[in-house]
Design goal:
This protein has a single domain, classed as Glycoside hydrolase 144 (GH144) (Glycosyltransferase), CATH 1.50.10. The chain has a two-stranded antiparallel ribbon with strand order 1-2. Strands 3-4 form a two-stranded antiparallel ribbon. By secondary structure, it is mainly alpha-helical. The chain has seven helices and six strands, in the order ααββααββββααα.
């Protein structure tokens, strides 16, 4: 086993980028790993780490969490429990909507209604912020904005999952790699 922080998982984009198209619901590999459960657990571990807040960063809470790669006061950083610099990326918790709908919605409301203009603009949420360092990005990165839209829609209707998973080449590829899914014939 690794040390304390290594056991807390990496950046949340691990659970989001791949699964914008590939539906993790019912997706298992030849070892029996369930990718939806893995994504949910990783997300809940990230949230619990931020709530525990071992480095005592101002602002972390059950409504203000989400460590993943993005802009910070130190440049672009892959934030995670093992590389926590007090910076929250809105995409991390909001793009986790399929895994943690209640918790992600609480974050969305807090970000929009309580932090408001500090992190919201005509382009959506800024890429990152740190209440502790009184730093609020001015940037909006498409690689972080896109998953917000896609994962909210996947939670809401599964539209992008259905479109992607019904592509015969995707089904054949998953099957050849030993994956099982409700989509794989």
């Amino acid at each position: 086993m690794g040390n304390y922080d290594e056991d807390k998982g990496g950046p949340l984009f691990f659970e989001q980028y791949t699964f914008q198209g590939i539906d993790p619901n019912g997706l298992t590999d030849s070892l029996g790993n369930d990718y939806f459960i893995q994504g949910k657990h990783h997300t809940l571990i990230n949230r619990a780490y931020c709530m525990e807040n071992p480095k005592q960063f101002k602002g972390y809470s059950d409504k203000c969490w989400g460590l993943t790669a993005g802009d910070s006061y130190k440049g672009y950083v892959a934030h995670s429990p093992q590389n926590d610099r007090g910076v929250i990326q809105p995409t991390a918790a909001i793009s986790s909507m399929p895994y943690t709908p209640k918790e992600s919605m609480e974050v969305l409301r807090y970000f929009y209604y309580d932090l408001g203009n500090k992190i919201w603009s005509k382009y959506g949420f800024v890429d990152g912020f740190s209440i502790h360092h009184n730093w609020y990005a001015k940037s909006h990165l498409a690689i972080d904005q896109g998953p917000i839209v896609v994962m909210i829609e996947n939670y809401r209707s599964g539209l992008l999952w259905k479109l992607f998973m019904n592509i015969p080449d995707i089904q054949n590829g998953l099957k050849r790699l030993g994956f099982k899914s409700p989509y794989v014939k």
